[in-house]
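Agenda item 2: flavin-adenine dinucleotide complex prediction
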Amino acid sequence: MQNQLIKKMVIVGGGTAGWMTAALMGKLLMGKIQIELVESDEIGIIGVGEATIPAIKIYNQLLGLNEVEMMKATQATFKLGIEFVDWRDKNTTYIHGFGKVGTDLLWMRTYQFWSKLKDTANLKDLDNYSIGVVAARMNKFAMPNGQDLNSPMADFDYAYQFDAALFGQYLRKIAQNYGVKRTEGKITKVNVNSENGFIETLDLENGNSVSGELFVDCSGARGLLISQTLGAEFDSYSKWLLCDSAYAIGCTSAQELTPYTRSTAHESGWQWRIPLQHRIGNGHVFSSNYMNNENALDILLKNLDGEALNEPKLVKFTPGKRKEVFKKNCVAIGLSSGFLEPLESTSIHLIQTAILRLLSLFPSDRFSQVDIDEYNRQTEAEYEFVRDFIIAHYKITNRTDSEFWKYCKNMEIPQSLNDRIELFKSSGRFFQTNNELFKEESWVQVLLGQGLKINPDPMTNLIPDEDLVSFLKNVEDVILENAKFFIPHVDFIKDYCKSGV
Ligand SMILES: Cc1cc2nc3c(=O)[nH]c(=O)nc-3n(C[C@H](O)[C@H](O)[C@H](O)COP(=O)(O)OP(=O)(O)OC[C@H]3O[C@@H](n4cnc5c(N)ncnc54)[C@H](O)[C@@H]3O)c2cc1C
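Presented output:
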């Protein structure tokens, strides 16, 4: 018997996850299967999540989005990386930029030479060896030029900072244009087949009912289908990622429009600053075990650029993931599948990869368990890669000025992360696996930026130190020379994608 395509997919939830899923599935599958999205205006969406990473451009391309139109519709700005302030120690800063660090010599990397000689040759910070980071520090932006592989203009990448609620509305229009049916209503009961445990129908408060074959749970952290109905267990990462709360608030902008997100470490957590065209998004992410709500809010309000634009919103979360994100005939995408705190802006990306994974392992009408197991295995590996990267920011620090930071500095970390750090420390060598989201460049910028001390790769001795110093000086100069091609971020936005007010 041949596998047959399922006939109907029901998406539960109209947040970023729901509409991202609906838009892309709508484009690729409409006419072949029916798609219906159920959302409740009364419940609403979480309404935070404004910073992205460069891979979002793959989603946009698959959907055929026009960048200018999308940026105008979402009040978007460009993002060249994330600045980490006070993370290594108080009064320190580094940027995790999207792109290459320097250029290679033989098979070795610029950062390997830099770490060998930075003290003896009095070198500048590693930030000066990435063109995107140098431009970010100047508040400038340009489009990368991937054609000219010999130029540093090919060596950086960018993402967006946008209004998440507007992004959802934008995608909703696209999805509906492809024929996705939107049903407004609060789901009050989820009915499962008493024999096989598969979800069959959703009862709505207004008395209607929605049936389907595949159910995509985008209902947010509550996991209405995957957890509350099917009982998928949660694997918590709280012993490594202590933050479980955030206050979010928008404010007016008082500074130049920065082409990067800022993360400033505080006593028991950190604060984000995400500049959009019409406002700045801010939030204080903190651990409720180490700080109460009142103090956390006070710190946030004292550290805004301009006037607050709305009431602060408190969000509670648990870092971790469902052990099974695909169970029976239900796949969880978005917060219903899990959440890693927003430090590296990875949640929207995890939504994107979940959609692509679902397409590549799309269930037949028989819902093969081996497909489901593979889906879960891939999701788990992806989460653990990202989890380790985020934990590294907390673990590698010189800060011991609060109980929170003391815990982070001394905590036991997953073996997978420990092995990587030890290898890098012992020989300045870093290896990534093929499917990992964060590549070597990201890891080394963060590990070195956080203050990890490494022994140089012995192979760097193949080249005399004075040659390495002039190589590094040349990299720095070429980057500075090319930074002239960038223009002020604010002007770029004005000419390219200025939103109407
Ligand atoms: C503090 C914080 C900061 C973040 N910052 C970032 C960031 O910078 N970058 C990033 O990539 N991600 C970020 N995220 C994550 C990001 O917010 C989410 O990944 C994204 O918003 C997706 O949310 P969602 O669609 O899964 O859930 P939600 O937005 O919560 O949507 C849930 C949907 O389900 C519907 N629903 C629920 N129950 C029912 C019911 N009974 N009946 C009908 N409908 C129902 C709701 O109405 C809603 O439409 C952040 C998250 C937090 C907590």
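Discussion summary: Residues 101-155+395-489 form one domain.
Owner for follow-up: CH.
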